[in-house]
Design goal:
The chain has 215 residues and is mainly alpha-helical. The protein has a domain at 77-210. Helix content is 76%, strand content 0%. It has 15 helices and no strands. Helix 8 (103-120) packs antiparallel against helix 15.
């Protein structure tokens, strides 16, 4: 992706376009209403701070587990799409909240807003407390598409706001994007990773330092 094409793509679509999954494509093409019905029910369950249980979900839809797995895949696949579906509006809101900023300050503003939402969304924190190992695996590794989508979104921001040679060419856009995402994860999930307190303010300072906003 070049800096020219990056400006034409809305932030909401970058991640899924960069790392589509079997389930995301089924949900997007509109030809699998049963998959969409199962996904929407799972999403409502998650937002209500309840565990997504495949047996209970199948029963609520009036089908057996085999049918549910045929519609949406396994639990991790379904959880990954639910989590990313909630990240999208958060990223859109973060971009709108930072619309008056430019360059590295805008990137730092968007990512700080995103981290703050991850820290303050109680249903999300309950998921982290309820299933910490699974949460970290799905959110911070390449075992699910979530981190690849987040990195792709961060790279899109870097190319849009800093160009193809950010920070004077000291680092390439993919490398800077990966560092920004790892930094975001470190402050969002500090309690799970290091027994520390998650902090959007510390993330803001770190983003601005890395992006040389105050230099």
């Amino acid at each position: 992706m070049t800096s020219t094409t990056a400006t034409a793509v809305p932030i909401a679509t970058v991640g899924s376009n960069a790392a589509p999954s079997w389930l995301s494509e089924r949900l997007a093409d509109g030809s699998h209403p049963d998959a969409l019905r199962a996904f929407e029910s799972a999403r409502e369950t998650f937002i209500a701070s309840r565990r997504i249980d495949m047996g209970n979900l199948a029963a609520s839809l009036g089908v057996d587990r085999t049918s549910l797995f045929r519609w949406v895949g396994n639990r991790d696949a379904l959880l990954s799409e639910v989590l990313w579906s909630l990240a999208i509006p958060t990223l859109v809101q973060a971009e709108h909240a930072s619309a008056d900023l430019v360059g590295g300050a805008r990137i730092a503003g968007i990512l700080t807003h995103f981290v703050d939402d991850l820290i303050t969304a109680e249903y999300f924190r309950q998921f982290l407390r309820r299933e910490p190992a699974r949460a970290l695996r799905l959110l911070t590794t390449k075992e699910s598409p979530i981190q690849r989508r987040y990195v792709a979104t961060a790279e899109w921001l870097v190319r849009r706001d800093l160009g193809d040679a950010p920070l004077g060419g000291a680092i390439d856009p993919p490398g800077l994007a990966y560092l920004l995402v790892r930094m975001s994860e470190s402050f969002s999930y500090a309690d799970l990773i290091a027994g520390d307190v998650p902090s959007a303010e510390r993330a803001r300072v770190a983003f601005r330092l890395l992006l040389r906003v105050d230099a």
